[in-house]
Amino acid sequence: MIALQNNGFNQLPDHLQNEAYLRGVLLDSFSCAALVLKKHTREIVECNRYAKQLGAEVGRACFESLFKADRPCHFCRADAVWETSERQDIEVENAGKSWRCIWIPFSDDLFLHYLSDIAERKKHEEQIISALTEKEMLLHEMSHRVKNNLQVLTSVMGLQANVSKNDEANNILKEAQNRIRSMAVVHEMLYKTKNLSYLNCGDYIHKLAKTLLQAEKGETAYKIRTVFNLQEVMLSVDRATLLGLIFNELITNVLKYAFSADRDRELKIDLTKDGNTCTLSVKDNGVGLPQGFDHRNTGTLGLTLVSGLVKQLKGEFKMSSDNGTKAVVTFKLSEKDGDLN
Fold first, then answer.
1. Which of 196, 225, 260 is the last residue of a domain?
2. How far apart are CA 273 and CA 280, in angstroms?
3. Which of 67, 192, 201, 236 keeps 20 to 30 A from 288, CA to CA?
4. Distance (Å, rounded) from C-alpha 247 to C-alpha 266?
């Protein structure tokens, strides 16, 4: 078949082009119907046993013996073979069946035509497509239900915080709520997208920031000017969830410690990609870090979580203080991520 497709039959040595070779070796080597036809009349010169099983008869036109027609089939590409000197390959529906038909130049006035019944293959393809569609629907439904369950959980925690008289317990519950919200946003986006393998983290970070800031504003009533610079970064769902949890802790840290009551508040959020290196940056214009601050030795749950989650991304985490606080997370794209596929 390599010789047929790449060089044409006319490139075969003379001793391989004789009738004995065609009948005894070449045509019978095919596992589908194979015929040698005359250029203009489509008269069958040679055919193998599979073609004969379909009704092919030497000396008759292929469309007469195979499809009981009185003229060439509407899908026939024989003329295109001579116009282009290239093989023609199509899939068609004819005589109630699905066929794959191929025409290949053979000599000045002959060409090879072979066709195979692909009904079974089509049937399997349809079954696979149906199974994949059903799987996609189930995954969407699962994401929808997970999102709803997480929202119920955050609501219950909110109710518990409202009735609790312990301020420390209230703060713990509210921080836990935000962590759960970051995961709920993932499933909300998965439910609305066709791609269940990857998440656009530019959109994810934007939506998560709005969700977290709106929840905080409802309680404290102060406004924060937010500036976004978010590129499209496609991460696997697992890694996007890690990034969301990291971002949640960084935003929570800003809201808890960055701003005093007597100053304008600005928050800059960047997500950029340079080659296969991604950078998430959260910068505020708040009071800055305390003297001698080391994020690796704070003992707080939030920054401890950030450090642990960044390790899972195999990235780096840095914090600096210059007219406010800047937290930067850098990491490499992995083979799991959409931007490397």
1. 196
2. 9
3. 201
4. 17
